[in-house]
């Protein structure tokens, strides 16, 4: 299976790109959000990928982070959700937004994605709610997809000078890492994965720029017995 591609962006269409990897072109389908984060044609690019192989189909889907890739895998495991719907959800919400929506049981946010009806949105939240804590805990592992030098993917006479090299745009890791750290802290305090994930998601939604310590304090206030 192909799990990651590093090469040069040869062309881009509405929903897919062609990555030239040492003379071999790979067509990779991406969400709108991922498409917007990619560099220009001719520049170096790297994406984590998920490969779907069926009797009549072989397609690659690309992601800028491992968290996005994992959500795609999980979304596609839900009955009635295919790759197109999964990319629509990730494009509309982003991986952090998907984590929050599912942890909070917010199927209305999932329904906002193109092609997702209320029954499908509710099924997604119901089926994946127990998976949210594990994916949110991956937040600290989100890395820049472009973790190798440009000369790894271009021929020596085509390599750009170092100052001109541009990394693939990426999702900021600070918020994801803070959520992962807060989730770990709450788990160590004895809170269940689902209730901890919901509290962290709600705190992060209320204060997107909060650091780990602030998220822990906010989540603890949400988890405290009422009245």
TrEMBL record:
Domain Helix-hairpin-helix DNA-binding motif class: start-end pairs: 73-92, 108-127
Self-association and partners: Homotetramer. Forms an RuvA(8)-RuvB(12)-Holliday junction (HJ) complex. HJ DNA is sandwiched between 2 RuvA tetramers; dsDNA enters through RuvA and exits via RuvB. An RuvB hexamer assembles on each DNA strand where it exits the tetramer. Each RuvB hexamer is contacted by two RuvA subunits (via domain III) on 2 adjacent RuvB subunits; this complex drives branch migration. In the full resolvosome a probable DNA-RuvA(4)-RuvB(12)-RuvC(2) complex forms which resolves the HJ.
Record region (Domain III): 176-227
Organism of origin: Ruegeria sediminis
InterPro entries: DNA_helicase_Holl-junc_RuvA_I (IPR013849), Hlx-hairpin-Hlx_DNA-bd_motif (IPR003583), NA-bd_OB-fold (IPR012340), RuvA (IPR000085), RuvA_2-like (IPR010994), RuvA_C (IPR011114), RuvA_C_sf (IPR036267)
NCBIfam families, per database record: ruvA
Domains (record comment): Has three domains with a flexible linker between the domains II and III and assumes an 'L' shape. Domain III is highly mobile and contacts RuvB.
Free-text function comment from the UniProt entry: The RuvA-RuvB-RuvC complex processes Holliday junction (HJ) DNA during genetic recombination and DNA repair, while the RuvA-RuvB complex plays an important role in the rescue of blocked DNA replication forks via replication fork reversal (RFR). RuvA specifically binds to HJ cruciform DNA, conferring on it an open structure. The RuvB hexamer acts as an ATP-dependent pump, pulling dsDNA into and through the RuvAB complex. HJ branch migration allows RuvC to scan DNA until it finds its consensus sequence, where it cleaves and resolves the cruciform DNA.
Region Domain I, annotated ranges: 1-64
Keywords, sorted A to Z: Cytoplasm, DNA damage, DNA recombination, DNA repair, DNA-binding
Family: Belongs to the RuvA family.
Main location: cytoplasm
Domain of life of the native organism: Bacteria
Localization per Swiss-Prot or TrEMBL: Cytoplasm
Name the UniProt record assigns to this protein: Holliday junction branch migration complex subunit RuvA
Taxon lineage: Bacteria, Pseudomonadati, Pseudomonadota, Alphaproteobacteria, Rhodobacterales
